[in-house]
Design goal:
Blueprint (H helix, E strand, L loop, with lengths): L5 H13 L13 H6 L5 H4 L28 H4 L7 E7 L4 H9 L6 H9 L6 H5 L3 E5 L4 H7 L3 H11 L7 E3 L3 E3 L11 H8 L3 E3 L12 E9 L3 H14 L4 E8 L1
Parallel strand pairs: 1-7, 2-3, 2-6, 6-7
Antiparallel strand pairs: 4-5
Bound molecules: zinc ion (2 copies).
Length: 256
């Protein structure tokens, strides 16, 4: 993890003035040391976050108990194709995690992106991500209407944090290459098959008309939550089709 710069201390001070540093999970006041290491989250609430840890599917990132197998592929994703190579998520969507995401998105507590950014450090435990760079980081886009209503795209905020906190030796650049062109209905109420249909044609390259990306470049798709992987897969298929991207991984804070 990067050392804390003087600028982030200054920023911390300013943010502390705008948002009194209390835990976003339980409102407990946080001291400045805690706030600097893990902004807006107390140790007790952090302990409720179920870390996915070492044992997870090497394709979809679903966590499992038990011994780690090198090329373990879960039953869930053996029966359908995902357009990304693999996904890595940090925590299961239980404990305080879902509340944090909910507050960020629907409570418009944009400052929580910094906290979620520190939680995202977990993805670097995966060697494929650490050693598979260089990467362009591509946020899963929101439809412009939804982005305007919310004021920001949470995945874009997380992408910023991921790039700013890149570990030593990992090359990351933020490139919002995608846009959402069709809204569809809320994915949360749909099963996997319905999600795939709902998402078909939902994403396209952004209007900047990028024609190619450097050959050696991999894409790191980033979303706040990965559930079935359908969204990231649809984004990945646009990038493969339109830009011929060869290496695509997906990362998220939570696994739904
Ligand atoms: Zn707390
Ligand atoms: Zn899987």
């Amino acid at each position: 993890m990067k050392p804390v710069s003087r600028w982030s201390r200054v920023k911390q001070g300013l943010l502390g003035w705008v948002y009194p540093p209390v835990c976003a999970g339980c409102d407990t006041p946080l001291d400045s040391k805690r706030q600097l290491a893990r902004p807006f989250l107390c140790a007790d609430c952090e302990a409720t976050l179920p870390r996915i840890g070492e044992h997870y599917c090497q394709v979809c990132g679903e966590g499992f108990a038990g011994p780690s197998l090198l090329s373990f592929r879960c039953a869930n994703c053996s029966d359908h194709e995902l357009a990304f190579d693999y996904a890595v998520s940090c925590y299961r969507g239980a404990g305080v995690g879902s509340l944090l995401i909910h507050r960020l998105k629907y409570g418009k507590q944009r400052h929580l992106a910094r906290l979620l950014g520190t939680l995202l450090d977990e993805v670097w435990r995966d060697r494929r991500l650490r050693e598979g760079g260089p990467w362009w980081v591509v946020p899963v886009p929101l439809h412009s209407r939804r982005r305007r209503a919310r004021g920001f795209n949470q995945s874009h905020e997380l992408a910023h944090e991921l790039v700013a906190r890149a570990p030593e030796g990992v090359s990351l650049e933020l490139h919002p290459l995608l846009r959402r062109i069709r809204q569809g209905v809320n994915q949360a109420r749909l099963d996997r098959r319905e999600r795939l249909v709902n998402l078909t044609g939902a994403y396209a390259l952004s209007r900047r008309r990028l024609r190619s990306i450097p050959d050696e470049m991999g894409i790191l798709l980033i979303d706040d939550v990965i559930t079935t992987g359908a969204t990231a897969s649809e984004c990945a298929s646009v990038l493969r089709r339109e830009l011929g991207v060869r290496r695509i991984a997906a990362v998220s804070v939570l696994r739904g």
